[in-house]
Amino acid sequence: MNDRPSFDTGAVPVAGEAPRQHALAGFWFHFSENRGAVVGLAIIAALVLVALFAPLIAPHDPGEQFRDALLAPPAWQQGGSPRFLLGTDAVGRDILSRLIYGSQFSLFVGVVVVGIALAVGVTTGLIAGYFGGFADAMIMRVMDIILSFPSLVLAIVLVAVLGPGLTNAMIAIALILQPHFARLTRAAVLAEKSREYVTAARLAGAGRLRLMFVTILPNCLAPLIVQATLSFSNAILDAAALGFLGMGAQPPTPEWGTMLAEAREFILRAWWVVTFPGLAILITVLAINLVGDGLRDALDPRLKRS
Amino acid sequence: MVRKTVFAAASVAAMLLAGTASAKTLIYCSEGSPEGFDPAPYTAGTTNDASSKTLYNRLVEFEKGETTVVPALAEKWEVSDDGLEYTFHLRKGVKFQKTSFFTPTREFNADDVLFSFNRQRQKDSPWYQYTSGVAWDYFDSMDMPNLIKDIVKVDDYTVKFVLTRPDAPFVANLAMDFASILSKEYADKLEAANKKADINLAPIGTGPFAFVAYQKDAVIRYAAHPDYWGGKQPIDNLVFAITTDPAVRVQKLKAGECQAAPYPPPADLAGLRADPKLKVEEQAGLNIAYLAYNTRMAPFDRPEVRRALNQAINKQAIIDAVFQGSGQVAKNPIPPTMWSYSESTVDDKYDPEAAKKALEAAGVKGLKMKVWAMPVSRPYMPNARRTAELIQADFAKVGVGVEIVSMEWGEYLKKAAEVDRDGAVILGWTGDNGDPDNFLGVLLGCAGVGNNNRAQWCYKPFDEIVLKAKTLSGQAERAKLYEEAQAIFKEQAPWATLAHSTVFQPLSTKVSGYKMDPLGSHRFDGVDIAD
Amino acid sequence: MVQFIVGRLLYLVPTLIGITIVAFGFVRVLPGDPVLLMAGEHGVSPERHAALMAQFGFDRPLWEQYLDYVTGLLQGDLGQSIITKVPIANEFFSLFPATVELSVCAIVVAIVIGIPAGVLAAVKRGSWFDQTSMGIALVGYSMPIFWWGLLLIILFSGILQWTPVSGRISLIYFFEPVTGFMLIDSLLSGEKGAFASAVQHLILPTVVLATIPLAVIARQTRSAMLEVLGEDYVRTARAKGLSPLRVVGMHALRNAMIPVITTIGLQVGVLLAGAILTETIFSWPGIGKWLIDSIFRRDYPAVQGGLLLVALVVMAVNLTVDLLYGLVNPRIRHR
């Protein structure tokens, strides 16, 4: 029953191409064994395609108002027409087209937020872990402070300060997500710092920056990658929640959470304006989490499922 | 089928209630928490519904369902010939409410009137600043501190207001919420106990209902005032169930969890009307939603440009998509239910072609402008964002590019008032006292530039007429002047008048005696509920 | 142990100071101001505006305001709401029980369902139960709960009409709050049907709020169990012929609980964040909704006090978890 894999992050030496390729192949082998993860990956690939080719796929312009078809129901329901497959919203915009364009925002939010959080979190984590002492204490205290507020509360206040909008929402979410990266990196650096290969590199005269980013960092990647996928889905959820509270992307942007917020008043009358954007969020987040699970299992099954 | 069983469950619950106490209880799903229970420091209708309308009376009041002023705590009043002295004769035998926290020993008299007003105007009164941050915004904004020279107690039941200048809307102002009469005896008791702030938490008044309990953000409970001077109310208990989400209010109404709820989302009206347990009353709101150009900025400083843009707006589309039909296109700056409303005004016809030509004729090409959309829903405008999007699409058809601007509501109000504001702003107004000056003078007079006059529009011929009308006391004479003013307004077009919203009031069919208030408040005096 | 606790507490002091600075700082840089909001369309004269701002103390240098704020805090004074003029502490603690009641119910539901499901899934690894329950858990974990809440309202309150739409208890019941917890108060009141009504009102919000913690706990329990089941001592116990129930119950579960307790502790932050959305959707009169409303109303002292108190709650819970952890796992103490 012991299912520990042969692949162990801590022991992989940073060396030539051959072992790296071997590692990749091993990783893919483990990853592709997980059916869910493959399905998730396929959904994400499809989403990326949809986002990239939105102008080609979408039947209508997401902002075009068809004033003769306000709140038209989906095609299969009585009163619906094939012109608007998933119906229209209060000012007659095609919901399907808005969802298609909305995928751009969700993926964009995920990428940017994770990018910022990763860059900031990893850098601060490296500094804290590598230098230790005062820098470490200061940085970790700041992270403690950020983490002692419930994430959404802090994001909401931040957005209130910066002003509502997608950009500010992304900044706020990145800020609340980055302590996780900082903590992970710091812990990994502390574990790696005293290992032989680091000492060897140091003795060989490697500079501090090189030691931090080139020697140590690649060996802390596994948990960071897993955390990044988790953060990706959290970023999408939080951005949608902010949009829902009226503090994220502003209408008429076809961001899914914002669409939900606009649709709330029609909850009793037009179920489709409420249902579809939420479903889109759920499917996207689910796909990313499936991939995240697969990544974790493939990279390092000892990492806790949480 | 399922509906039936649940309804049955609800009736069982109702029977249980009837079993425990045969009291009549009316539950009203109110739209928000009151800021406090002293009406004067606040201007929000939500607060006044929970305080001034239920707990208090005023010297004069608006007749239920009307904007006419009728006697209340004052039985009658006289105005001196120069229009500077108003003498009020107070009603005798009016009792304050007796509650768990206060038992009155005397009846209402002139001291209560003096107390209620003087605390808002005498800076040395211990009640002027009874708890930190108290401000008398409504009193101030109606210019009462400058208008009232003195308030004199002639005897226990006679009070004289001395004014600095004649002012036609003065008596109507005294019917407003800030003029509610509080108990001086109670105030003295609180002051002695050094608990002045309690007047805002545990209120005592002469009104139809007495305060019982308030659980923050959840529920306010009232009981009928047994010795009310107008007679005890038909219902025994009045409950405000605070429900901020409009869709949730509708669901609670349908589920029988409350018997009345304000501001239903327009999208749900059809469903409410179809429900046999409910009835929906409606009334034109005393309000206006407008798009105010900045008339000090080129090219909006030219009336022909403003008129051309007005022609380009499809107002009916706004009524359909934003108001979901619960409004009417506005042609005048005052609502149709207000006296002096000019029927003869001809509205700009929606005609993009003509608008395009007019813009070209005016030499305006490739115009880019900003349209400001407020971030909140207001009674006169359910969704300014959506309105702005529609205007954006309309203006695009005549070659005008629109950028929609929005910001935090407080910022919005402040920046919209600035004289050098860039762009046209969507905003509106709900009448305070049913007087046309409350619209035409306050919103469009020269004195309001840089403040409530969001078009920054100062046009002498208009201003003179409106100022003159305010000093006259005959309504017919005034109406004539206001109609002239409306004609000038239409010709000059500082605003695009967008809509007057219709106010809807869904009620349980068991409720009787409810009358919608054109001024937008919710009153439960005289309301009954069948078992 | 005492040393450990004291150490932990001392460690929190700088964080605490940081939190007061953050709470104070944010509020100072919030755009917009309450005076303008309260005046609405009527507006307010510049003089009046300045006078009011001075009254609230907003015109003084920042550091002076901060010192005042901290001095007040040390005396237990969080300031006064600008809107209602009521002390923040009163507002907070009058609403806090509602949030606690909801959160406790949610976490109990999450634990009671999540742990057994996780254990069973681990023991029957690869079975249909494992796959289905973990599939559901992943969906729950991916759920945008604000949308989930709306769907449940449409279905159970709208179409089926099984549950009440919002609020904490039917308004036909009226009793003075004793504890502030509606479940307890309704029992104390002795009114027939009151308790049932309170429970009915709790169901949907609890389900919504419990969704994510439930998913997280089930997943965490499963993986912790799997790990423990693979350890040598468990295998030894098995080899010795102990019954599977004993192995799982006595040995594995106890050790697997350590990471699960941490996870549960971490859910408190998640719960409070979730409470904001849940309370908004269900008009639940708790602090989540109050905090949002205060932000929108620019009620500075309320936002400031609310942020601080919420952070304190999170810290207190984390500290408790830390201490519990220290008790369960003595190795930690001497680190």
UniProtKB/TrEMBL annotation, chain A:
Regions crossing the membrane: 37-58, 105-132, 152-177, 270-291
Domain ABC transmembrane type-1, by residue range, is 103-292
Q: Does the keyword Coiled coil apply?
A: no
Q: Which InterPro entries does UniProt cross-reference here?
A: BP-dependent_transpt_permease (IPR050366), MetI-like (IPR000515), MetI-like_sf (IPR035906), OppC_N (IPR025966)
The record ties this protein, via CDD domains, to: TM_PBP2
Q: Which SUPFAM superfamilies match?
A: MetI-like (SSF161098)
- What family is this protein classified in? Belongs to the binding-protein-dependent transport system permease family.
Any idea what this protein is called?
Dipeptide transport system permease protein
Automatic annotation (TrEMBL), chain B:
Instruction: Return the Pfam families for the record.
Output: SBP_bac_5
From the UniProt annotation, give the residues forming the signal peptide: 1-23
List, for all copies, the residue spans of the domain called Solute-binding protein family: 68-450
Origin superkingdom: Bacteria
Q: Tell me which UniProt keywords the record has, alphabetically.
A: Signal
Q: Which InterPro entries match?
A: Peptide/Ni-bd, SBP_5, SBP_5_CS, SBP_5_dom
Gene3D superfamilies associated with the record: Dipeptide-binding Protein, Domain 1, Dipeptide-binding Protein, Domain 3, Periplasmic binding protein-like II
**Where located?**
Periplasm
The UniProt entry, under PANTHER family, shows: D,D-DIPEPTIDE-BINDING PERIPLASMIC PROTEIN DDPA-RELATED, PERIPLASMIC BINDING COMPONENT OF ABC TRANSPORTER
What family does this chain come from, according to its entry?
A: Belongs to the bacterial solute-binding protein 5 family.
Protein name, as recorded: Dipeptide transport system substrate-binding protein
Record the organism.
Answer: Pseudochelatococcus lubricantis
Automatic annotation (TrEMBL), chain C:
Q: Which domain of life is it from?
A: Bacteria
Please report the record's description of how this protein sits within the membrane: Multi-pass membrane protein
Domain named ABC transmembrane type-1 is located at 96-325
Write out the transmembrane intervals: 9-30, 100-123, 135-160, 198-218, 256-282, 302-328
Q: Which Pfam families does the annotation name?
A: BPD_transp_1, BPD_transp_1_N
Q: Which InterPro entries match?
A: BPD_transp_1_N, MetI-like, MetI-like_sf
Keyword Membrane tagged: yes
Localization, per the record, is: Cell membrane
Q: Which UniProt keywords apply?
A: Cell membrane, Membrane, Transmembrane, Transmembrane helix, Transport
The family annotation for this protein states:
Belongs to the binding-protein-dependent transport system permease family.
The protein's name in its UniProt record: Dipeptide transport system permease protein
Organism source for this protein? Pseudochelatococcus lubricantis
